[in-house]
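User: Fold this one for me? It's Transmembrane protein.
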Amino acid sequence: MASQSSLRQSTFWLNESFRAVRTQPFAYTGVVVFSLLASGLLSSLPIVGMLLASLWMPYGAILTGLGARDALSGKTPGYGVLGKAFSDRKLRNQFFTIGILSAIWLEIVSAVFAILGRESLEKWKITAEGIDLESIYANFPTTALVVAFALYVPLLMLTTFSPLLIALNKQPVGKSLFFSFFGVLRNLGPIVLYLVVLLVGATVVTLAVEAFFAAIGLPAAVAFTAPILMCFLSALSQAGVWAMFRDFFGSTRVEG
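Assistant: Here's what I get for Transmembrane protein.
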């Protein structure tokens, strides 16, 4: 079972996240952006997009997780782990199982959202000038969104550490899902605190950047800096997942 961390541990995870990105700012951020772009590109495909994105998810998890491990150990993160993962038949089958489970779960979540939010979504208007924002605000599917999010959270808990537990700790799929879920559950407090601090920090930085460009008369420049901030925030959060995994499941049991 995963070890339990105190709320103060979230500070350590933040420090480790910043250290990973600071040590390898371009290589590690590039790995994270590649993983996110691959997921986004696959999910945008018609009909099979959600399935392909779900099948990619375990590979993206070990790519960014081991990338953070390499960055923290002074190595340059790379993409070789993907080739090894694809060539390992047992690992490939285990990742396929997780991907299928995720795809089915997400289809159910999407169906629930569509059913609960159908009436609100039908009232959204598109005019000649574009989407009518007032119609969206007046008919926002709050209930559907809350229910869908509540259904999605358990899947996130099941799969946050599962790919790393399979690839590194050599756990079977069922056991990895169990340990991932309860690893998150036992440490929910410090995890939530870590995410809150990260998001608050990102919000403060974003507002400060907006204020700076407004002060110098270049408010439109925010559009160019926003993607950079998003990449940086994504890299920090993914590095944090590795720091948590190492704490929860013990670095001495990690192989590879």
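One thing worth pointing out: The longest strand covers residues 126-127.
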